[in-house]
Write a structure and sequence with these properties.
- By secondary structure, the chain is of the alpha/beta class.
- The protein has one domain: Nucleotidyltransferase, domain 5, CATH 3.30.420.
- Helices cover 34% and strands 25% of the residues.
- The chain has an 8-stranded mixed beta sheet with strand order 6-3-2-1-4-5-8-7.
- It is globular, with a radius of gyration of 15 Å.
- The two termini are 19 Å apart.
């Protein structure tokens, strides 16, 4: 199984963390520009890419996914808060620009950490880090990649709908 997790920044002026998982081994990267993100996706050839941003832009501050996540006790941000619209548009652009055939899913990182009952990647027992995590962006990318693993293993909860998009949270 090969998956990628992306902790996407709203713009290419700020760092984006990327984590790849293959055979339960994690490698992480910090990049800035969309071509760098796309190059890693193309080179790594994943089955699933998990981004910590909605892949559908809604006119509503909260989509069905966020409303359901709120009801479960998690705390997603509304789409119209801060730089969220920029981040969502960037996530949509990356998915549309990817030449590699793979599935894209979205996650909400705080909800992922809460569902797994961990706050740091070193607390994960089913994967092995292959490099030193350089920053928080890479640490959070690990959680997005782990979400993609749970998704491939069909051990997840899905929130939302086809129209506005679905958010994936690991289920243990």
């Amino acid at each position: 199984m090969k998956v990628i997790g992306i902790n996407l920044s709203a713009t290419d002026e700020h760092a984006t963390g990327i984590a790849t998982i293959e055979d339960n081994k994690i490698r992480t990267f910090t990049v800035y520009k969309n071509p760098e993100i796309l190059e890693i996706i193309e080179r790594f050839d994943p089955e699933v890419v998990c981004i910590d941003a909605p892949l559908h832009l809604s006119a509503n501050p909260y989509r069905a996914a966020e409303k359901e996540i709120l009801a479960m006790g998690y705390n997603p941000e509304p789409q119209n808060m801060g730089d969220n619209k920029l981040k969502i548009k960037r996530a949509i652009e990356i998915r549309a620009s990817t030449l590699h055939e793979c599935e894209f899913i979205e996650c909400h990182l705080d909800s992922v950490k809460k569902a797994l009952n961990v706050s740091e990647p070193k607390q994960l027992t089913n994967v092995r880090m292959m490099n030193i995590l350089k920053n928080q962006y890479e640490k959070d990318a690990v959680f997005a990649a782990v979400t993609a693993m749970f998704y491939k293993e069909e051990s997840y909860e899905e929130f939302g709908d086809d129209e506005e998009g679905k958010t994936i949270i690991p289920k243990i």
